[in-house]
Structure formats: C-alpha cells, structure tokens
Amino acid sequence: MSxxxxxxxxxxxxxxxxxxxxxxxxxxxxxxxxxxxxxxxFVDGLINYFILFAMMGTTxxxxxxxxxxxxxxxxxxxxxxxxLLLNGITTLLAAIVLLISMHTVPQLIPHKNILYIGVCKLxxxxxxxxxxxxxxxxxxxxxxxxxxxxLFYMVSVFLFIQxxxxxxxxxxxxxxxVMINGIVNIIxxxxxxxxxxxxxxxxxxxxxFFSVGLYIIISSMYTSFNVAWLGMTVGTDEVGxxxxxxxFHAIILALLSAFQNVMFPRVTSxxxxxxxxxxxxxxxxxxxxxxxxxxPTIIISIIFxxxxxxxxxxxxxxxxxxxxxxxxPLILIIGYEQIICIQVLLAMKxxxxxxxxxxxxxxxxxxxxxxxxxxxxxxxxxxxWLSSEFAVMVGAQYLVFKTAHFSFPWKMFFKxxxxxxxAVIVLxxxxxxxxxxxxxxxxxxxxxxxxxxxxxxxxxxxxxxxxQLFQRVFSHNx
Length: 478
What we know:
mainly alpha
C-alpha cells in the first residue's frame, strides 16, 4: 500500500478518535457529574500507568521486528511470538502488583469494584498487538476496525448511560472497546502469523524492550503520572477538574504531532543528503507555522476558557477553568519542543540526549508533584505539567544549540506577540463587556480572530505558508 494511502488512513484514524471524544464526553460529563467523572478518570489514569509498565518498549520493538521479518512467515511468527511472550510476562507482573495494590493501598480500596474492570483492560491490552498490523502496514484494517468499534461504543454510551450511578457501566463500555479490539486482532492476526513457543528467543529483544520502555516511563512522570498522583493525594473530584481541562487540549496536541510525523521523514532525508540550507529552511517553516497556529489559539482559549468549557461540559466543572487556562500555553511549548526534539535531535540520531533530557522533565515533575499538588489540587497538577514541559523545552534548546547551532527564534516570537497585542485587547473587551450565551461568545471570538489572523499573517507578518494557503483557497473559489 502506498505511503500516501497509509497517511490518509492514519489521519482518518487520528481525527476520528477525537471526533468521538467531542461527541461523547460533553454528554457523559453532564450525566455522570464531576465526582463520578473524577472516579472514572482516576481509575483509568492509574490503569494506563500500569499499562505503560506492562508494555515497556513493545510497540517500537514490535513494529521494527515485524517490518524486518514480514517477507518470511516463519521468522515473522517467531518474532511475533517472542515479543508477545515478553509482553505477556510484564503484563502478568503488572497485573499482580495492581491486584495487590487494590487490596492494600487505602486510597484504592474504595474503588475496588471499578478497578477490577480496569484489570480487564490491562490484560486485554496484551492482545491488541497493533504493532503487528502497523509493522505489516495494514493501516486500512486498523482504521476500519477502530472506527466500527468506536461507533458501537458511542451508540452504547447514548443508550445505556442515563444517570450518575452508571459510572461503572460507562467505564465497562470504555474497557469493552479494548477487549473487543484485542479479541478481533488476535483472530485476524492468524492471517499473518501463528503463535509458537518453538525456537523463539526473547533475549535479543530485551535491550530495546527495556531501554525504550524506560524512556516512555520517564516521560510519563510529567504527563500521565499527574492523574494518578492527584487522585491519590487530593481526591477524585480534583481529577475530574484536571482531566476535563486536559481532555480537549489533547486534541490540539494530536494535530501538532500529526504535523511532526509528516515533517520528520522530509528533514531526515535532507540531513542524509547534506542539504543543510534546505533543512534549516524547513525548520524555519515549522516554527513559523507553529506560531501562526498556536498564538491565536492560546489567546482565545485563555480569555474565553470558561465559555468554552461550560459550553462543552456544562455546570459543575468550574474548577477546570483555571487549570485549562494554565495548560493552554503548552500547545506552543510542546509544539516547539517537538520541532527541536524530533526534527533536530532525533533526525540527527541523538536518542541518548533525548533520554537525558526527559530525565530533567521527570525530575521537575516529581519534585513539584510532591511539593504543590497536595495544596493546589488540579491547579497544582497543571502547574507541574507546564513547568516540566518548559524545563524539557529549555533543556532540548540547549542541546540543539550545542548540536546544530539552532537557537530559539526570539525575534520571530516577539514579532508575533506584538502583532497580536491589539487582538488581545479587543478580545478582552468582548469578554468583559459582552454578556451573551457561551456559543455566541465563542463564535464572535473565533470570527474576529480568524479575520484578524488573515490580515496580520498576509499583510504584516507575511507568513509564506499562510500566503500560499490563502492564495490556493481564493484562486480555487474564483
């Protein structure tokens, strides 16, 4: 299958996941309420953290080994079996630790019933084996299967989730999507492989399995660990505030990550060919595009954050407003961090430096989690995430400057800041003095910002990407 078609399928899969979230989460948050949403998100965050330890580097290792051996069915089956066996051992260990924790940790004992549902998610995650189909480049199957099961999930949510006490049923439906995906995948995997214990070896996989897994776990110390720690130290209501604030922020980050996935092969190719002038030009385009997208998005989100969240999730989530405003600058911080980490350090094969830098973020995240989260709750977790990612970005910038002499684009950053200052003043006036419904306020803000952005990008900043985009749109319409 062509790269273009694979990209289309992968894009459809990514976008569909967030479309389903936008369709179901506002309904679920209104029906279940803050406390029950907090319980579900706390439990699921904890289970996902155990899944991280169970998976380690399975995904990266699996994709690589499947891609290498896919032309030989016998080698392919042995590679699949060895990796699945290794993943099975770590999953079993993670499940044992989870079951013991459920009965011994005071903060988990009240949630034992729903945690048993989470155990099923941990176990059936072993059978997802998405790495097999990714390595075989069967993105069509992955996309069609995922969308079909998500449709089943969405319909089930609207049919069966009717009252606050349905929160355990809601989590069961979430876990059922993993279980069904796992069962279907194992059955379909027989098209490519057969599980066998004869002649398999897991020793050659151990280094990649644990080194990549260590990197993922360290990185999680300032991302997914926040949810588990917040629930353990403060309570599930604060988890509800925090996860609601981050839920829609994740959609924007996914779009930025998709952009990086497109740019990474291109800049890697330019580096391998020694075309440094073109390579640096691509980096400049990436940063310029990031600022053009993030600056207006952050401005609207910070000023109109309460209207956006109230429109999406309704009453009772006022505690999410400030965390939402705190984390919105992360789309710029993480976006720039991805550019310099992926398009510079990773493209130059500086993986070890990336690992060291992630340790910096983990240290800042753990330290601040212990110091401020107990006192500040969801606001504290938001500050932890913001501070950790900022530390990672600063550390990566230092490494990038030493490695490639690529410095932070201060001039461009201040240029964008000054250009959008009038828009900030106007939007603050609209927010302060206009008293309309959420949807009307959001619509006014978006229409003004879109019009302002078109003028600023084409007439003042003269962003080449925006100029080309608007030129194509207008010429097409004519």
